[in-house]
Design goal:
Elements lengths: L1 E5 L4 H17 L4 E5 L2 H6 L7 E4 L2 E5 L5 H8 L2
Parallel strand pairs: 1-2
Antiparallel strand pairs: 1-3, 3-4
């Protein structure tokens, strides 16, 4: 599973990255976590608000800082 954090590096984007790390660890999943900071790549996903979260190339959340539990739920579906 590939998890992508889409954001330019703002504080919320960094916090989302930390929470994704915690969620992956707590869920015991083997995931590749990638930070996408290039604005052109982010826009290619159709994302206009960051932070955003994509799982296996599919955008699951935009413009909101998800909790660890919300991220775990997305990872396990």
């Amino acid at each position: 599973m590939k998890v992508q954090i889409l954001g330019t590096g703002c504080p919320k984007c960094k916090m989302l990255a930390e929470r994704v790390g915690s969620a992956v660890s707590e869920a015991g999943l083997d995931c590749e976590v990638v930070k996408v900071t290039d604005i052109n790549e982010i826009m290619a996903f159709g994302v206009m608000m960051t932070p955003a979260l994509a799982i296996d190339g599919e955008v699951k959340s935009t413009g909101k800082l998800l909790s660890v539990d919300e991220i775990k739920e997305l990872l396990q579906t």
